[in-house]
Every structure is written in C-alpha cells, then in structure tokens.
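User: I'm putting together a small comparison set for a docking exercise, and I want a reference complex before I start. The sequence is below, and the ligand is S-adenosylmethionine. Could you produce the 3D structure with the ligand included, as structure tokens?
Assistant: Of course. I'll restate your input first, then give the structure tokens for the complex.
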Amino acid sequence: MEDDDEINRFSNLLTDEDNKPNAFSTEQNDSPNHELLQKHFLRSIQSTVTIRLLPSEGLSFQLWPAATSLVALLDSHRINPTNSPLSTVFATGAPMRILELGSGTGIVGIVAAATLGSDVTLTDLPHVVPNLKFNAKANAGVVGSSGGNVTFAPLRWGDAADVEVIGREFDVIVASDVVYHDHLYEPLIETLRLLLVGKKTVFVMAHMKRWKKECVFFKKARKHFCIDVLHVDAPCNGSRVGVVVYRFVGKG
Ligand SMILES: C[S@@+](CC[C@H](N)C(=O)[O-])C[C@H]1O[C@@H](n2cnc3c(N)ncnc32)[C@H](O)[C@@H]1O
C-alpha cells in the first residue's frame, strides 16, 4: 500500500511501550519474511486464534489497536450479550452474514465468525488477500467448531464491480482502523453507500483517532448515514483518547 511511512499504529498518540498488549502472545520465526505468529486466547470459547503478521510488508500486515478493541468486545459479547455494547447489532443471537472491510490480518472477522458462529467474508486490497487466506485457513478448525465459516475476497473501496462480485446480502459490515489517509475517505464512503443505503445492514467501525482531519470523514459520512457511538475504550497509559466503536445505518 502506498504512503505506509506516513502512519504508524500509534502515531500522535501512543508509544509502543504504552501499548504493550497483554491479551496475546507473539512468536517470531526465522523465515525470510520475518513473520510473526500471534496467539489470541478467547475466553468466551476457551480457544486460541492464531494470526500471521508480516510487519516488513507494510501496514496491511500488522495488527492495529482498533482491531484489538473489537476482538475484546466480540469476546465479551459472547460471554454476556445482554450487557454488551454490541447487543443492538447482534441482537437476535442467530448466525449472521458479516462482511469485513480493510481486514488487514483478518483477526476481527475471524473472531466474529468464531464467537458468533457466523459466515464472514474478509476483504482487502488484492495483494493482502493471500495473508487473509493463510489466516482464515489457520483458524478454520476453531471457527468451524463454533459453526462459523470464513471466506476471503479482494474488495477495493470505491470499486462498484468488486461489490457486485461479493454481493450486498450482508447483515453487518465491520471494520477497524480504516479511516486514516484522507484520499481514502470518499472511496470508503462510496463502498459503504453501496452496502448500506436502502438496506437494514449495519456498519460497525472501531476507530482510533489520530488526526483532526478525520472529522472530514465523519462530516461526509453523516450526509449518507446516521452514526452513533456504541462504545468508548478507556485511553491506555499515556494516550489522550481510546478506541471508539461507531454504528452506521443508511439514511433513507
Ligand atoms: C490501518 S490498516 C487496518 C487493518 C485492520 N483492519 C486492523 O485494524 O488491524 C487499514 C487497512 O485498510 C486496507 N485498505 C487501504 N486502502 C484500501 C482500499 N482502497 N480498498 C480496500 N482496503 C484498503 C489496508 O490494506 C489495510 O489492511
């Protein structure tokens, strides 16, 4: 992906030291691409999801803070759905068809499939799909034991043909840390319009605010969607803000 150097996962807000994850463990192996295998234990299903990260290949191959927050919320939702911020989205308890945009490593979609027993389609730019495939296959056992299923496909924001191929029959769209470069605001909103407007589909977006310019995304998005806040994470040590989880529904 272009412009990778302009952004790091905690830029303007946090140092990596402040954000040392404690909910997962990471192992590095000696492969030429310096891959990392990260193990996330899900209390709700007493199972571990393992994700391959390829940090040397760019920001699409790393785990971002909003993804970690959404994973924790999905795990808590499965334990106690009544008191969960996600209860209005996953209200029925019935399996749902879920689409993830800008999946990166795919962990959010994989955990959604495993904790909700849902059919999930992971998507990202074409060059990211092989790693999505790897991670989907690595976790097929855990996901299958919960009655879920994970597939993967390329979906470039703003590309109507990609949406046509995947279809528009989803109950919920999810994404984490997808608002960052301003040239991506319009394409992302266009894809969301195709998927949400005139339908009951809900979009759940976990977002870590980094720059003031991000208010432009929300201003543009509010023309097409009603947006409310489902959850705000407490800021981690040293940060000014925590991850916010929004719900979007199409107007009209
Ligand atoms: C900051 S990363 C977040 C990744 C992941 N959701 C997470 O939270 O760990 C943004 C993701 O959006 C994807 N992305 C960027 N531009 C895109 C576009 N035009 N179409 C589809 N995906 C895009 C990137 O490849 C990347 O995986």
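The chain has a mean pLDDT of 89. The first helix runs from residue 65 to 79.
User: Thanks, that's exactly what I needed.
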